[in-house]
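Discussion board: Methods & Data

I've been asked by a reviewer to show the raw model output for two of the constructs in my manuscript, not just the figures. I'm not sure how much to include, so I'm pasting the format here to get opinions. Each protein appears as its amino acid sequence followed by a line of discrete structure tokens. Is this the kind of thing reviewers expect to see in a supplement, or should I convert it first? Here is construct A:
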Amino acid sequence: MNKNHHINVDFKNSEAKVKANIVLISFKELDNFIVYSPHLEVTGYGKSEEEAMSSFNHCLGVFLDYTTHKKTLHQELVKLGWQLKKGSIKRPRKINAPSMTDLAMHNEQLKELLNKHDISTIQKEVAIPV
């Protein structure tokens, strides 16, 4: 994956925003490029890396918008292995994404992906409204 890719999620919410680092895994399957974040279980795809990243950005925005609107984002992140500590809007919550080792231990599909595909990874910082 080209290191110049950035996650640009135009997400506005009155809740506090916290920055967190997530890993993106990029690989090609048949004729499609796939961008996947095991930290959020969000995937994008396209005929080029740029299309896949654009699709990922869109899907990430939909995920954040939906779970924030339904007030289930905190619950979903905890289910995905995130550690969240309470705070206030002035002092946002502390948030830690699970390690890739922890993710692979609990996700057989991720373990298979890491072992069987020619992948590239990058780490990106995203703002998450928790």
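Construct B, same format:
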Amino acid sequence: MSMHKTNSEHGLAWVTGASSGIGRALALRLVRDGYSVVVTSRNHEKLVALQQEAAADGRIIVLDGDVTDPQDMERVLASIEYDHGDLSLAVFNAGVTIPVRGDDLHRDAFERSFAVNVNGVVNCLLPAVAHMKARGQGHIAIVSGAAGYGGLPGNAAHGATKAALINLAESLKLDLDRIGIRLQLINPGPVDTTGSPRLGFARSGMVSADEAAQHVVEGLKSKHFEVSFPKRSITIAKLSRLLPYGAYFALVDRLTRQGATPPKATNTRTSAKGRPHQAV
């Protein structure tokens, strides 16, 4: 099975949700590593500002696009292929966080979450895999999150989408290995991209967007299927799932009661219709 690991000599990198948060920081780090980086979101002004900031270090190519629109993502990939060169690395990072409480359910929160977080990845994945399959090699990273490991208060929509992405990546890995495409799963824990606590938890243990991007870059160069950070938060999340439900819910209740009130959805990763987006 292929263990293809790309570097900046292999072609272009593509980062979705690049106007802010982890996506923006990752694009800057990849440019410094020598990549020409295609950046996508619906916020054209922020992408242009990113392009100008990176100009001294390398090349950023702005291709506006809405990940919830499959034809838009086909168009972005066609532009990459025919106007700019071979796509070597794709990091599907665009996503939305919308807090959902059981005592105040709204259909729109679920529909928007799945449209961006799950369908948005699929809409990018299909053209990217077709392009890389034709080349016989490529490298794709799907940004999910530790929220997919287990249910948390306020996390019903967001966590469900992240669990879906974890299963999606696990299910596709071996098939893509066999056609020369390396697939990795990025599972960040709490990332402080807004200055506010996330979904009922205190800010202690969070990493900055730039620190998260550094973890991602290091992970892309590694042999690991899953890239997860920060270590303490991820370890607690994974070990907690080994507990029986009674102990699990007691632990979650204690930890979430110590945290802050769940925040409103905020903009850190823009990808769809100008709606509020947040990191994983």
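Answer (T.O., handling editor elsewhere):
This is acceptable in a supplement if you add a one-line summary per construct. For B, something like: The beta strands are 12-16, 37-40, 60-62, 87-92, 138-143, 181-188, 191-192, 207-208, 226-229.
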